[in-house]
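This part of the workshop introduces the protein records we will be handling. The question running through the whole workshop is how a given chain folds. To make this concrete, we reproduce a full record directly below:
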Amino acid sequence: MSKLPAKLRNQLKKEAFAWEASLSEERPEKVEKLLERAEVFQANRPPRQPVSLRVDPFDLSLAKRIARRKGIPFTQLMSMWLHEKVEQEKAEAGA
């Protein structure tokens, strides 16, 4: 469930493999210098948008129980479920 586009994700994987290969051949002192100069990767995402909706109390109660069992906030669980369903519908539509 990656938020990065496939092209960028593949490019990052290739870069990671290249770094791994070159680092395995280097001495520890040189590796430290390379890591000091490395840039931190940050993927900029648009901020999350708050949404209000009315939910059946029974459904909300069950979602809270499931979230508590999984150890995550129920809003995060509901967001994950929504994202999974949107991705599923997108795949079925061939978008």
